[in-house]
Amino acid sequence: MATLEGKLGLVFGVANKRSIAWAIAQAWHEAGATLAFTYQGDRLKRNVEQLAATFGDDVLLLPCDVTSDEDIAEVFTQVKAKFGKLNLLLHSIAFAPRQALEGNFVDTDRESFRVAHDVSAYSLVAVTREAAPLMTDGGGIIAISYYGAAKVVPNYNVMGVAKAALEASTRYLAADLGPQKIRVNCISAGPMNTLAARGISGFTSMLKHYEKHAPLKRNVNPAELGATGVFLASDGAAAITGQVIYVDSGYQIMGM
Ligand code: NAD
Ligand code: 0WE
Predict the structure, then answer these.
(1) CB-based contacts of 34, cutoff 8 Å, min separation 6
(2) Residues paired with 141 in a beta bridge
(3) For the segment 121-144, what is each residue's pLDDT rounded down to a tens digit?
(4) Which of 9, 62, 71, 147 is least enclosed by beta carbons within 10 angstroms?
């Protein structure tokens, strides 16, 4: 029997087939979970519809811009109506205005800082608050982070500060919700060739840098993020909460 048989999950952050959210959703599905999806806006609806259709023709699909409290509330109203409860939630969302991801961090303007933190960190708090009352048998919540939360990665800038807030939020949420057997963890992924990485100047050389310097001398593939997502969501991880698990070919252990 698959490890997530009978589990009900909600996935935020699929944009296309390369999305980390899609890699984890596929692995959750293969492990036996039943999933619902949100998509950011009409621009992405078709993509998510087509991907979700590979799981069957009655997959729940809901629009959600995480900067909107109304959108978030409506998502959980619909999930409650369809599922009645929830076991798993994946948060795989980040955004900072493009100009904030180049040049010096010291030049980050107030609005870029606000938007990056609203979309990339506060949204985890907002969706967790709505999900918790539906997680009546306990639950597993996973967010996706990056090493720039912990160390300075050139140009990652305000996104690194927002990821630090995401990781700290994971710990505070884990402490609040532990008594309800709701676990909250981050997967810190090595660089992946997704839409969010496209057009980041120097991204290809970053992939080469990991190949050269990570202990495993290679990059990470989407199925490996999926497998970690299944583990963290499964009863095998029942005593793991508030953690940041690095899935990065070991890059994070190196000092030089
Ligand atoms: P992606 O572009 O496929 O996913 C990003 C998602 O964020 C998209 O689905 C987009 O619709 C969503 N999003 C942005 N603003 C939103 C909003 N206001 N409301 C709702 N959704 C919104 O790229 P990805 O690389 O799969 O990114 C997923 C997560 O993985 C992000 O948190 C990212 O920081 C993290 N991550 C990415 C990498 C990488 O190298 N690609 C590495 C580590 C961590
Ligand atoms: O979290 C990310 C990227 C998230 C992201 C991407 C974009 C591109 C388009 C957030 N906001 C935007 N805004 C846009 O307008 N990653 C971990 C991938 C990434 O992005 C970098 C990296 C890495 C790695 C940016 C600079 C340096 C390294």
Answers:
(1) 6, 7, 8, 9, 83
(2) 89, 184
(3) 999 999 999 999 999 999 999 999
(4) 71
pLDDT score at 1: 66
Closest CA to 251 of 153, 173, 161: 153
Q: Are 233 and 129 in contact (CB under 8 A)?
A: no
Give the C-alpha separation, 245 to 89, whole Å. Answer: 17
pLDDT confidence of residue 2: 80
227 located within any domain? yes
Residue 69's domain comprises 8-247
Tell me the one-letter amino acid at 118.
D
CATH number, domain containing residue 76: 3.40.50.720
* Ligand sitting nearest the alpha carbon of 199: 2
Pocket flag, ligand 2, residue 146 (CB < 6 Å): yes
Judge whether 159 lies within some domain: yes
Cα–Cα distance measured from residue 14 to residue 37, given in angstroms and rounded to the nearest whole number: 8
DSSP 8-state symbol, 190: P
Residue 115 lies in a domain: yes
Residue 58 CB neighbours (<10 A): 9
Instruction: Output the CA 156–ligand 2 centroid distance in Å.
Output: 7
- Whether the per-residue pLDDT at 167 is higher than 70: the answer is yes
Q: Is 101 in the pocket of ligand 2 (CB under 6 A)?
A: yes
**Number of structural domains in the chain:** 1
Q: Residue of the nearest CA to atom 7 in ligand 1? A: 93
To the query of whether residue 146 is one of the catalytic residues in this protein, the response is yes
Active site residue 156: yes
d(CA 113, CA 157): 10
Cα of 101 vs its chain's centroid, Å: 19
